[in-house]
Amino acid sequence: MSGLEIERKFLVRNSDYKRLAHRSYRIKQGYICSGGGKTVRVRQRDEQGFLTIKGPSLDGGLSRYEFEKEISLDEAAKLFDLCEPGIIDKTRYLVDYEGYTFEVDEFYGENDGLVVAEVELKSVNDNPKLPPFLAQEVTGDRRYYNSHLRQNPFCNWKDSL
Length: 161
Fold this sequence. Notes:
The chain is mainly β.
C-alpha cells in the first residue's frame, strides 16, 4: 500500500471502545530511522511483519505520504535489531462507527495509560461523526506520534496534562 494517508487523532475518554471493537491485535513496532518528520519503521502485527516509510506531515498533521509493504516475520525480527532505542508495544482495537473505522491504540510499557484513536479519512474535508468514547482531538500534536513516544514516552509527561 502506498499513497497519501489522511487521518485525525483523538484521546480516548473511557474503555467503551473495547466492547464496540470487532477486532483487536497486538502490535510491536520500532523505528530504523526517524528524523525531520520522516520515518522508517518495522512492525509486527500478530503473525505479520510490515516495513513502512512515512513522509513529513502536511496540513497541520492531517496528512502524509505512506508506503507500506508486508514482510516475513523473520525479516521483521532482523530489522528490529537495526532499530533505534525504544520499542512501541500496544493493542489496536478496530471500531466501526457511522461508516468509518476508528483504530484505538492502548499502549503498554513506558506509554502505559495512554489510549489514542485515529480515523483515516478519504479527503482533508471529511468530517466523520465521532463516537462518544473520544475526547480531545490531538491531530498534529507531535507528543502523540508513535515515533515521538519512542523517544519521549508518556510516563515522562503525563502528569503535565
